[in-house]
Amino acid sequence: IQYYTIIIFMTDFNSPKAKKSYQRNNDFKQMKQAIWLYFILLIFEGALRKWILPGLSDFLLIVRDPVALFLLFKAFQQKLFHNNLYMFGMTFISVVSFFTAFYYGHGNIVVALYGLRIMLLHFPLIFVIGKVFNRSDVIRLGKIMLWLALPMVVLIGIQFYSPQSAWVNRGLAGNMEGAGFGGANGYFRPPGTFSFTIGNSLFWGLVSAYLFYFWLNVKEVKRGLLILVSASLFGAMSFSISRTLFFEICLSMVFAFVASWNKPKYFSRLLIATAISILVIVLLSEFSVFHTGIETFFARFSEAGDNEGGLKGTLGDRFLGGMISAVSNSAHLSFWGKGLGMGTNAGAKMMTGSAGFLISEGEWGRLIGETGLLLGLGAILIRTFLSVNLLRKSYYYLSKGEPLPWILLSFGSVIILQGQWAQPTSLGFSVLTGGLIMASLKNEKKQNI
């Protein structure tokens, strides 16, 4: 006590060094609070737009942008982007694309600004979250996701069985036609608290990744919670009628088995988790409330598979096919593309009066269609290199006995690589997950991501 008392009295709190240290700690505290606000708005942005403040629905579409601006301002103050080639490359592409959209593309400056915010405002947050958050924050957010999963499955279950005219299914700006999307057997895909059904699928995809991680590390959460969330995930998969969610769960399972391959304790825990999950599925399938959802899910899977040529066609069209066609379809485009922001739903609405896909529903097709083959491929390569680098580092940490970044990458790899960033919720989950993966890679003293 005497030692620390002497140190305290000897410290000159008015010195420039002490002031700078205090200011840096205060800035990081504010930035961490802003990241949590970004997360909260991501989860409940749709609820604000549909139920709480429907009259401000259009404005709330960019409700996370001021938070992103604040984080970028503080990040530049603290020089968090030093020697970041990803940032430099994406900033160059986005700025050039903005001017080419105005002079050679659609010429609508508002639409170009809306497109500019994706790469210039939100993409950098991946690195901000990675710098500001630590492993404890990543775990804390995961636990919150597990607890949120419990009321969320109840909500989407109610939405699944309620007519589209019900308040719980109300669309954006209070639209009485409903927020559900076409499903099967007369049922619609529920959006949960999100604006569109894609948000619900992404939410449960991240829950799935965290769930598999916590099953491998059962000491960090109560086993009862894991069982409840496992049951909720099964219910969410059936109610969501989402093949995307099904593939996300399968991918997380594959990553979890890879993580347990050389770790007997992980493998035994995963087998226990699998056995418990199968038992829960068997029990829940006996209840009519879940049985209807299961039938609807498989009906959707069968119908969509027939239309797309089965599982091979589904995977090919949604993944490899989208990548290949994005390049092959660029032959008819001008060198600078049609203009930044034109491929977003909001941009389409500003230009034509109704939302839609003026360029491409696929992310790679949108990027090349908006900015041209050269700049579009540049943006794609940046996202590809980032995904590969995260994969390499995550696997290294896995080999050292730390599975957290690896399991999170099971969900983050695809949405970072080719997630639909034109959709605000998808963009938000990509940014958040990328940042969480980076933050979980902070066990070593030196990092160059």
Notable features of this structure?
about 450 residues, 18 helices, about 0% strand, disordered C terminus
Q: Short summary of the structure?
A:
The chain has 449 residues and is mainly alpha-helical. It contains 18 helices and 2 strands.
Helix content: over 70%
Radius of gyration (CA) equals 23 Å
Strand content: under 5%
Biggest sheet architecture: 2 strands, antiparallel
Point out poorly predicted stretches.
3-11, 444-449
Sheet with most strands: strand arrangement: 1-2
Tell me, what's the shape? globular
Count, helices:
18
Q: What is the total tally of β strands?
A: 2
Span between termini: 41 Å
Briefly note the structural class of the backbone. Answer: mainly alpha
Mean pLDDT: 85
**What is the N-to-C order of secondary-structure elements (H for helix, E for strand)?**
HHHHHHHHEEHHHHHHHHHH
